[in-house]
Specification:
- This protein folds into two domains: 15-168, 3-Layer(aba) Sandwich (Rossmann fold); 175-269, Winged helix-like DNA-binding domain superfamily/Winged helix DNA-binding domain (Arc Repressor Mutant, subunit A, Orthogonal Bundle).
- The protein is 36% helix and 18% strand.
- It has nine helices and twelve strands.
- It has helices at 15-19, 56-68, 79-88, 105-114, 128-136, 151-168, 200-210, 219-227, 235-249; strands at 48-52, 72-76, 93-97, 121-125, 143-146, 175-177, 180-183, 188-191, 194-196, 217-218, 259-262, 266-269.
- It has a five-stranded parallel sheet with strand order 2-1-3-4-5, with helices on both faces. A four-stranded antiparallel sheet has the order 6-7-8-9, with helices on one face. Strands 10-12-11 form a three-stranded antiparallel sheet.
- The radius of gyration is 19 Å and the shape is elongated.
Length: 274
């Protein structure tokens, strides 16, 4: 199994370390190798995915992997074609290369969101510069993959994003706790009747905690459930997102009433309120 993990989609990534990292060895399970074979037993998703990838070989291997998890797909190789395709059909997920001819990935993503399209987007970055761009786009996208990535990692990220989005779009009624309202279907949060702007990861983190009030989640568990991986070295990612989230929803962020710290363990959403 491919055990490599992409850098977290969160601020604070060490770009210098990424830029100077040694080139990864070629492996049979990476999309840089035509022998990439998906293992048996992967979940079948029955979703439509648009692949926006300038490299024909990487695009071909990517859609081959999507076949293995039951996704229908279409691949285009430039920004203009991507925007035209998304206007023509509804897609459940977009895999978006950040370096594209005919308008880079940032422009495509901004125009997509300004046009009212809300489907999840998984960014693909191939350099430190592109990774920095991806971090700036965090409020507009769900996750990022760093090239070269393994076939298993691609499958895991696609499955993870689609499952997280499905989990936060189900449920007929918003959750209400005192002055806080969380609408999972509309992916909207209000405090005292005012809409609060959250990034995609902030919303998913809040939804993960709020769906199980009183349950304590470790930082590693939250990384796994919200970001799709668990590594102790990245636990500060959870801390920084919790701090920003508290600053947006708590009446007194220094003495939080919704998202509580369980010292030495992790975090929980308050129970018995509302």
């Amino acid at each position: 199994m491919d055990t490599r993990v992409s850098q977290p989609f969160a601020r604070g990534v060490d770009l210098r370390a990424f830029l100077t990292r040694p080139a990864p060895a070629r492996r049979a399970d990476t999309l840089d190798d035509d022998r990439s074979i998906a293992p048996a037993g992967l979940p079948q998703l029955d979703r439509r995915v648009l692949v926006v990838e300038r490299d024909a070989r990487v695009g071909r291997l990517t859609v081959s992997q999507l076949d293995q998890i039951g996704c229908s797909h279409r691949r285009v190789d430039d920004g203009a074609a991507a925007l035209a395709e998304m206007s023509r059909l509804r897609y459940d997920l977009v895999l978006l290369d950040l370096a594209l001819p005919g308008g880079d990935g940032r422009d495509v993503l901004h125009r997509l969101r300004c046009g009212g399209h809300r489907m999840p987007v998984l960014l693909m970055a191939a350099s430190a510069e592109e990774l920095a761009q991806a971090l700036e786009l965090e409020p507009l996208a769900e996750d990022v993959l760093i090239k070269p990535f393994g076939a298993l990692e691609l499958a895991a990220r696609v499955v993870g994003v689609l499952r997280r989005v499905a989990a936060t779009t189900q449920g007929p009624r918003p959750m209400e706790v005192e002055d806080l309202q969380i609408d999972l279907q509309r992916r909207q949060v209000q405090v005292r009747g005012r809409v609060v702007e959250l990034t995609a990861k902030e919303f998913e983190l809040l939804a993960q905690l709020a769906r199980s009030p009183g349950r304590v989640f470790s930082r590693a568990e939250l990384l796994d459930r919200v970001w799709g991986f668990a590594r102790d070295v990245f636990e500060h990612t959870v801390n920084s997102h919790i701090n920003r989230l508290r600053g947006k929803i708590e009446p007194d962020p220094a003495n939080p009433s919704y998202i509580q710290t369980v010292w030495g363990v992790g975090y929980r959403f308050a129970e018995g309120t509302g």
